[in-house]
Amino acid sequence: MSPRKKTRKKETVQATLGELVKKPSKKTTSKKKTAKKKPTAKTTKRKVPAKKVKAKPPVKKEPQVVTGPPLTSLPGVGSKLKDRLVAAGYDSVLKLSKARSKSVAKKLNGLSKTGAKNLVRAAKDSLKVPEKSTESKPVTDIESEDAAAVEITQDPTVIPLASLPGVGAKMVRKLEDSGYNSVSRLSRARPQSVARLVSGLSTSRAKMIILAAKKAIQDREMQALTGTIVPKIEPTPVDEPVAPKEEVPTEVAVSAKKIESKKKAPQKKDSLKKAPSKKKPMKKDVEQIPTKHPRMKAKKKKSGLPVPAAVTRVAKQMKKKWRAAEKRAEALAAGAEPEEGELTTEDTVQVVGLTSDETQDKLVQVAMEVLNETMMTGRPAFEIPRRSTDNIVWDEIRDLLLLGMKTITRPYHSLASVVDATRTARVMEI
């Protein structure tokens, strides 16, 4: 019976120890759970106000109104093209107006560069129209006019591209289409890139425009430092005063003066006409003599170029022959006898006085003599040099006389051919 009691005692001690250890652990766990629940509730409360801060995006809806009209209002933009523009990132007219035409053409397949330029221009024009309408509405109130004047004075800080030297309306459009829509952006660009993007613009001209843009920005910064900004208020008052209204009375006064001057003019004209009438003949007599003589005289000047010896020899020979011919003509005129073989005026015959029949008879005689000599000797009566234009016989009457026919129309190129034709003709007659 004893061993059973010992085992029971050991079990009771361990059980009591276990119970004592377990009881405080349960109490601590219950307290910790309550402590953890409280801070968890507090953390959830702190996160609630953080979510309220994210409720500010409705404020960003205001600038979306400035984006302008819808894309479909642009010319040539339908539903399909609108979807393509939105997919490319141009979901508003404002973004499209600020984009480059080349980038638009690249992003939209099937759209040419010219089409992209037209779209960008149309977007810019559509944005300009509402600005004019909004400015025209508040002009009625004096306070709104003052506010508009303040805005205008603030706008001159942005230098327009047209104010640069050498930049007109066309160049402004080209620069805006290529992405240079402000003077500050143009001043930071390189001339090579500007010349490459802008069509019809050389690098030298691009350099000049960029230098002008930099200078304009520097001047504006200096004016801002010195406090002398408002340079563009001056052109506005120049446009306001109407110039033609003031000129109208001046024109009337000028016309009145002209009428008075016209009445007094005839008296002066009479006095003026008498004075130059006496002086003009004196001037003519003095001017005519010196002006005529220098025109008649030829001034010979040496060119200084080297002349070959053969040319100088020929010139000397020609001068000698001219002098000899002049002396011989003077001697003949004085009554000297002609030399052998020299022709004189007595040996010549005046053919001008002969009629057509007389000339034909003389030609027939000469032709018969030539025919007789050729038939007897077999060669022409006189020699004709070869390979020259003088061998061509174009006289139809002489051909007819030599051949004895009246139906020949072709010319002979030499006298030998004429002789051959006469021989054949005579043989055929025999």
What does the model show?
Among the domains are: 163 residues, no CATH class; 74 residues, no CATH class. It has 17 helices and no strands. With 430 residues, it is mainly alpha-helical. α5 packs across α6. About 19% of the residues have low confidence. Helices cover 68% and strands 0% of the residues. The radius of gyration is 59 Å and the shape is elongated.
Structure described in brief:
With about 425 residues, the chain is mostly helical. The protein has helices at about 1-55, 60-65, 80-90, 95-100, 100-105, 115-135, 140-155, 170-175, 185, 190-195, 205-225, 235-240, 245-295, 310-335, 355-375, 395-405, 415-430. Helices cover about 70% and strands about 0% of the residues.
Helix and strand topology:
Layout: H1 2-53, H2 61-64, H3 79-88, H4 93-98, H5 101-107, H6 113-136, H7 142-154, H8 169-177, H9 183-187, H10 191-197, H11 203-226, H12 235-239, H13 243-296, H14 309-334, H15 356-377, H16 396-403, H17 415-429
Helix pairs in contact: 5-6, 10-11, 15-16
Keywords:
mainly alpha; 430 residues; single chain
Radius of gyration: 59 Å
Q: What's the N-to-C terminus distance? A: 198 Å
Q: What's the total number of strands?
A: 0
- Oligomer class: single chain
Shape type: elongated
